[in-house]
Structure to design on (183 residues):
């Protein structure tokens, strides 16, 4: 039975790292990546532990099997992952609804991934719904960026309620900055 909740153990953090390795960009063919999606950033156990100390990430498990994860990155985590420094720096300069983003309470979705055996079973939606359940009273919204060529992820985020507010390019890819506003 699928159940969403917060990360509670180091074993769960290790499961996240294992699932991440299975789904890294350039690990599969371009056709598979287009159909199934991919993750870009590689985390380490110490980084996940630091992120978790600020705010726990959300997972969906099928008994003891990790079905998916969605990493919580508060603004305090902005320097922990070098690949995301440009996202945090860029976000600080954006306007949303006519106000600087810095005037809102938000966090960044550090990465979301669903095990291939659980895709199409509602895990992605469960992850984000649990984020809203856990953090909805404390934050105005979640913000993240998605490689625009990751069409599966783009469609899934739109389905949940994310809306694109900006597109930019860096040394890794072209990215869409998206917001899921809980107001």
């Amino acid at each position: 039975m699928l159940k969403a909740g917060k990360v509670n153990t180091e074993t769960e953090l290790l499961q996240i790292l294992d699932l991440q390795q299975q789904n890294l960009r350039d690990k599969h063919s371009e056709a598979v990546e287009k159909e199934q999606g991919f993750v870009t950033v590689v985390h380490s156990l110490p980084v996940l532990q630091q992120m978790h100390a600020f705010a726990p990430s959300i997972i969906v498990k099928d008994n003891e099997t990790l079905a998916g994860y969605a990493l919580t990155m508060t603004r305090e985590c902005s320097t922990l992952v070098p690949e995301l420094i440009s996202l945090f720096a860029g976000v600080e300069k954006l306007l949303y609804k006519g106000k600087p983003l810095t005037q809102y309470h938000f966090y960044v979705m550090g990465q979301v991934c669903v095990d291939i055996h659980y895709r199409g079973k509602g895990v992605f939606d469960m992850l984000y719904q649990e984020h809203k359940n856990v953090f909805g009273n404390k934050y105005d919204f979640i913000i993240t960026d998605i490689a625009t060529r990751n069409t599966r992820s783009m469609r899934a985020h739109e389905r949940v309620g994310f809306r694109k507010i900006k597109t930019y390019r860096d040394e890794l890819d072209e990215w869409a900055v998206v917001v899921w506003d809980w107001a």
Summary: The domain at 2-181 is CATH 3.40.630.30 (Aminopeptidase). The first strand starts at residue 2 and ends at 6.
